[in-house]
Structures are given as structure tokens and as C-alpha cells.
Amino acid sequence: MERLIPTRYEPLQRPMRGGMSHVYICKDTLLKRKVAIKFVDDPEDERRLLDEISALQNVRSKHVVQIYDVFRDKNAPCYGIVLEYLEGPELSVDLVGQDFLARYISILYQVASGLSDLHDQGVIHRDIKRDNIREDASGIVKIFDFGLARFSGVNSETQGFAGTFGYAAPELYPADAKFTTAVDVYAFGMLAWYLSGQDPPSSLVPLRKGNPPSFSSLPIKLPAPICDLLDKTLEAEPSARPSISQLRGAFEAYLLQGSHKGLLVTSNSVRTIDASHASVRLVLS
Length: 285
Description:
- The chain is of the alpha+beta class.
- Helices cover 25% and strands 19% of the residues.
- Helix 4 (224-233) packs antiparallel against helix 5 (244-256).
- The radius of gyration is 22 Å and the shape is globular.
- It starts with 8 loop residues before the first strand and ends in a 12-residue tail after the last strand.
């Protein structure tokens, strides 16, 4: 079906099919920028699009895709949602010339920051996976696709499975699933395993069948405090998982380690204290 897009938006290519929707990449002729315009294919699934609008409209985060506009397509009829267009590459860690571990933890820190901002607004994404995270043109990692999002404590109950096999927490599979932000933490743990470049253990995919090995078994040599937290993200019991803000704090501490500097100024000298000069000796008269 031909979509009726406001003339302000100029389509740049054929629509892309994704899941239950079509996405048009357009040029906003007024603000001179690229945007992504999303329509659901089945009018009965429009609730998912409205969920995405509700989830995004109040969230302000550097690491969550922005919503720019919403309009009604009278041809369908249905809504179109105008989103920030992410022009960067698909999420990847193995970049030549960069330290793998620092790059890996930097990506996890940015995803954890976006999720923490969502959870602070009471939003549960419920479909965190590699396909729903992308970098923008400046290399900032952002979360998108909120078609399964729910608000914690309001309608965090679903009938039938909704999610992605291999990322979904065990509590999402019952027909009358009730869930908390812990489902995003579990999916984050699975994302961390996928991004390591190693195949996820057979005890986790496509369905959880036992206890997984520790993240310490991966060849990337993660620091012990981060390993311990990532191991807990994949606990079968939701209450045993850490919060996403705890994970963000651990990644931030690693990335900032050794980066602080201080200046010691005396009457006739200025000394710098940093990772390579952790102390100075002064002789005072």
C-alpha cells in the first residue's frame, strides 16, 4: 500500500522491511536532515507503534534515538512516526587499530547508559539485541525500536511470548508473563556475550537450559569486577540480577581509571599528578 507521507519529507530510497513494519528513509526538506519514518504493516499492530511513541516522547538521552514527529496517514489509515536517522555502521567491536577491550566496554557503557535513562523514566524496552542498537554518524551508540516497550508497574504483563529468542529472559516465556526492568538486564548480558565475538553457550540459546559459563571464560580478559556483574545479568532469578545503573557505574569506573589529572602549584613550580606520575616530592623551606 502506498503511504501518504507529508510533502515536507522527501523519500530517498525504496522502503525497507523490518519485523512488522516498513521504514522510509527521507530528507526533511525544512530542517535539512535525514529521518526515518516508520509505519506498521498491519493496522491491528498499531498499538505497538503507539507504544513506541509513548516510550520515546518523554525520554531524553544521548543514547536513545529521538522522536521528531508523528502524523496520521489517511490512506491506511495509520500513524507514521518520524525518528532520528542513525547513519553509522551496525554495532561491531572488532575494529582494526583500536584496543578491543576498551572498545568493548565503551559500547557496553553507552548501551547501559541508554537503558538506565529508560528505566529512570519507567520504560522497559523488552527487546534489547544487537539489531536494535546502532551508532550514529559521530560514533555515539543509541538504542532504538521500542515496539515492545512497556511501562514498569503499569502494564508490565503480556499474553503470549513477545521478544527475541536468545535474548529473552526466562520469565518472558510463560503465557501470563509478568516482568520488570530485569528482563532488559538479562538481554544486556546476552548482548555482551554476542559482542565478545564468541558464540553464546548452548546452555543459553535458543532457550535457557542450564547454567552458563562465566564471562571470565571469554578470551578478552575482562576485569574481575565487571566479570562478576556480567555473570549475574544471566541469573535465572530476576531479583539476583544487578541493576543497569550498577553495570553502568562499573563500566564508567573502568573507562575513567587513570584518566584523572591534578595540578600542584607552589611559589616557583607547577607539578602534574596523573597515571604516569602518581606522586611528587616537594622540599619546602
